[in-house]
Amino acid sequence: MSLNVVTLVGRVGGDPDVKYFESGTVKCSLTLAVNRRTKNSDQPDWFNLEIWGKTAQIAADYVRKGSLIGVTGSLKFDRWQDRNTGSNRSKPVIKVDHLDLLGSKRDNESGMSQHNSEF
Length: 119
Known about the structure:
By secondary structure, this protein is an alpha+beta fold. Helix content is 19%, strand content 54%. Strand 5 and strand 6 form a beta hairpin.
């Protein structure tokens, strides 16, 4: 038995990079900052996300820099050969299967102020 499941909640580091292919397929790439608590401060870990299909189109339409999202997917490694040095390179990428839109910084700020004004 094998298991490769990654679940992350964090803030998007930049606007989505969206590519549309002639076949009709959509690919969306994002970076995600997830805070890792340490004794002295919260340090973000950065993850590269790869989203395909309908989920990619949703990310393209609704996700922006600073948005709070949750993702579930699997870890894969993109591998290539460096054009200049010829050395083998790789980087970890989360292939997203499920995306939850949890809000943006603006949503949280306005929601907090509206919420507090009700009391």
